From TrEMBL:
Designated name of the protein: Glyoxalase-like domain protein
Species this protein is from: Caballeronia choica
Biological classification of the source: Bacteria, Pseudomonadati, Pseudomonadota, Betaproteobacteria, Burkholderiales
Stored InterPro entries: Glyas_Bleomycin-R_OHBP_Dase
Length: 114
């Protein structure tokens, strides 16, 4: 019998690397690959001009840690991520429950973004 998921991914809302060396990453993605970025507070670089995802962004590890754990340092008991991806789903709560029921650890639960 087919296992039908409780939630459906609609599209890729955002994707990109999690960066430790912000300047080196900017050199690669902006200067070497010609990606035009907007810069936000804290060195967060993003663009909505690449096809395939609504947003492509270089997310500093300290900002990812702040988003996930409320601290500027990544927790030692959790592997350091290399990239991030966000899917827009039809139901955030159902998607979270579905992933957790399959053994996925959610660092951020049921977050709805504008």
């Amino acid at each position: 019998m087919e296992n039908i998921p409780l939630a459906t991914a609609l599209f890729i809302a955002g994707i990109g690397p999690i960066v430790i060396e912000a300047q080196a990453s900017r050199q690669l993605y902006s200067r070497a690959l010609g990606i035009p970025f907007k810069e936000e507070k804290g060195g967060y670089l993003h663009t909505e001009s690449l096809k395939g995802a609504n947003t492509f962004a270089l997310w500093p590890l300290s900002q990812a840690a702040q988003s996930c754990f409320g601290t500027d340092s990544w927790r030692l008991d959790v592997p350091i991520p290399q990239a991030w991806i966000e899917f827009d789903v039809d139901n955030v709560e159902a998607a979270t429950a579905e992933l957790e029921s399959r053994g996925c650890q959610m660092l951020v639960r049921n977050r709805k973004e504008p």
